Amino acid sequence: MTTTLDFAALWPFWPMLLAGLWTTVTLTAAATVGGVSLGILGAALRSGRPGIASRLWGGYVELIRNTPFVVQLFFIVFGLPSIGVKMTAGEAALLAMLINLGAYSTEIIRAGIQVAPKGQWEAARVLGLSKVQTFCRVILPPALRRVYPALVSQCIIVMLGSSVVSQVSYEELTFAANLIQSRTFLSFEVYLVTTLLYLALSLLMRQLLLAAGRRWFAGEGA
């Protein structure tokens, strides 16, 4: 039995694939900025004195890190409307990715903060800096530098996990691939091209973020 591959038949569907790819890119960019910002806030809370806010955030981190992303997404899409909270598929996808990355980045960034020498806090106090100033200007920059590669990897994992949002009919790359496959029945060709697009996006995203990190952290001490 001979199978003939027909990649040329996919040519009319490239606009659909590229539109899905662009949706994935914009969704990932928004989730990355929001999720890392959430992680910085969470790391600040979790690195301070234990309190109600720290314990609540810790509970959120444990909940997200110990449940599947698809369950989190389905809860937002199908569970929240039962209590009157409704949103579009795009809003739900972004919220799920943001919450997921926020939990993981909290622990990544907190790990960088915990190894900060105590002398940095004491020196900042002697200079008259407030706790917020000390955290933002003295503690956070080197902490981010230490964990930046791990943070980049987590952002890429979240980007790849965005393929799950096709299950709630959000028209990103995997949704486009599934739709094209259902119309052409060229499963091998469609999913090979989709795989290569995800691979290219992952490699490009890693290189861009690492290059940005080298620029942001230029001159920072280890």
Query: For the report, how would you describe the main beta sheet?
Result: none
Give the percentage of residues in beta strands.
under 5%
* CA gyration radius, whole angstroms: 21 Å
The fourth-level CATH homologous superfamily is MetI-like
CATH class: Mainly Alpha
Query: What is the CATH architecture annotation?
Result: Orthogonal Bundle
| Uncertain spans | none
Distance between the termini: 60 Å
What is the CATH topology classification name? Answer: MetI-like fold
How many helical elements?
8
The global form is elongated
Mean pLDDT: 90
Share of residues in helices: over 70%
What is the total domain count? 1
Total strands: 0
The helix-strand sequence is HHHHHHHH
Derived from helix and strand composition plus strand pairing, the structural class reads mainly alpha
Family: Belongs to the binding-protein-dependent transport system permease family. HisMQ subfamily.
Subcellular location: Cell inner membrane; Cell membrane
GO molecular function, one term: transmembrane transporter activity
Keywords: Amino-acid transport, Cell inner membrane, Cell membrane, Membrane, Transmembrane, Transmembrane helix, Transport
Features:
222 residues, mainly alpha, 75% helix, MetI-like fold, transmembrane helix, elongated, transmembrane, single chain, MetI-like, transport
Explain what you see.
Its main location: membrane. One of its GO terms (biological process) is amino acid transport. The protein has helices spanning 14-47, 52-65, 69-79, 89-114, 118-126, 131-161, 173-184, 187-216. The termini are far apart. With 222 residues, it is an all-alpha fold. Helices cover 75% and strands 0% of the residues. It has a single domain, classed as Orthogonal Bundle (MetI-like fold).
